[in-house]
Amino acid sequence: MNAAGKNVIVVGAGWAGLGATYHLAKQGYNVTLLEAGAQPGGLVAGWKTPGGRSVEAGIHGFWYPYNNIFSLVDELEIQPFTPYTRSSQYSPAGLEVESPLFQMMPYLPSPWGTFAYTQFKRLPLADRMSALPLLYAVIDFDNSDDAWKRYDGMSARQLFRQYGVTERLYKESFEPMLLVGLFAPGEQCSAAAALGMLYYFILAHQPDFDVRWCRGTVGEMIFRPWVDRIEAAGGKVLAHKRVSDIQTENNRVTGVVCSGVDGDEQFDADAVIFSVGITGMKKIVAGSEALRDRTEFRDLQNLGGVDVLATRLWFDRKIDVPLPSNACFGFHPTTGWTFFDLNELHDEYKNEPGSVIEVDYYHANQLLPLSDTQIVELTQKDLAGCIPAFGDANVVDQAVVRISQGVSHFAPGSYRYLLPGTTSFDNVFMGGDWIVTRHGSWSQEKAYVTGLEAANRVVDLLDMGTTAEITPIVPDEPHIQAARAANNTVRQLLNQVVPQLWSY
């Protein structure tokens, strides 16, 4: 049967939406991708300043375990990434941590390589050793539905306190990781999400924390050639299409409605994939009676996002930045931030006469009301708190991007409201970094994987084409597998004997 006669509508042109669209277009489906913005990419879509300089809404890293994204760029025959880079961490007291390239170090069983090779400058060994009891929670959290339900009700701060992590280790290590990994302070992060994120990026295998970066904006370097390939395969990518409603019949969605200044426009659908962020999905639900009528979509109002502030500064001189990627803590209560030397990372700025620095603030709600001038002054002051030479330089150009509720917030208790990849509609599927998946990945890789999973569900539903191959995460190391098997055995026994003591 010819898939070209089947209409699939994908809503949202981020990693998930582009991934689903690309695979379905290759299978011959009549697939249309609707993007509310001016161009594909969502938060990672790049654009130009009036002076022709590239800007994007924050810098996004590509970590060692992003095997599906790395396979994608190979298929697209593009080379968008820098080599793997070392990173560091600063506080107002100065340099706190330097990380090596873990893949280049002698391999140690997880998590001992991370523990042994991370170069803490001030944090005493006794504080670092206080994290050892936390390894039980790492073993106990296996990304299963039961594990999420056990740990999601408590905050990450409660988790670390419960397992005896010292206040100094929490403030100088774990909370900074949460602020730039889950984008919120520990008391506002789900313990389950914290364990999942920390394990995937840092603890599962020694090289997992190694990261590389796009050599320009992700929109220019990856998404634009990707869209070209989608269109060459027959897919349609339409910008400025803001979805406002759906049409339904017999528990199926038959059409997607976009509202604009010229009236409504309907796109017929045999299957629909929603691949927008939490904030965007809540807006769509609010305007659609058919979606509001279903508890699973109505309950999305219990979820939220985190504010992001992205600044890019051009200086009148070159400043020596020891490492190209840096995370910072302790400068603003409940706010974490990162800064990047774009002269080292982006091809466009390698020959700039002065430093080009990207500074991204997360959980930046208290900073968004500031004027651009105030934000630039604050950003330069913060940079000087890490590298004093920034205080003597002059800013010759700037870009300030405010993203209200821009990234997913995994708050304590939020798991019950996150949507799975399937919905109560027979032909509606979900993708995105906030969608429940058992794959185990996080961030951009997770979004892309859920897009492929959604495409595969369409293929199964409409019984046309082949499913996409999804590379699973690298299996746990043998000692972790053995520890988890033993833990599950003990848990099952205790559930039989004293279930009331083992419930959460």
Automatic annotation (TrEMBL):
Residues 16-458 form the Amine oxidase domain. Pfam families: Amino_oxidase. It comes from the Bacteria. This is FAD-dependent oxidoreductase. It comes from Leptothoe kymatousa TAU-MAC 1615.
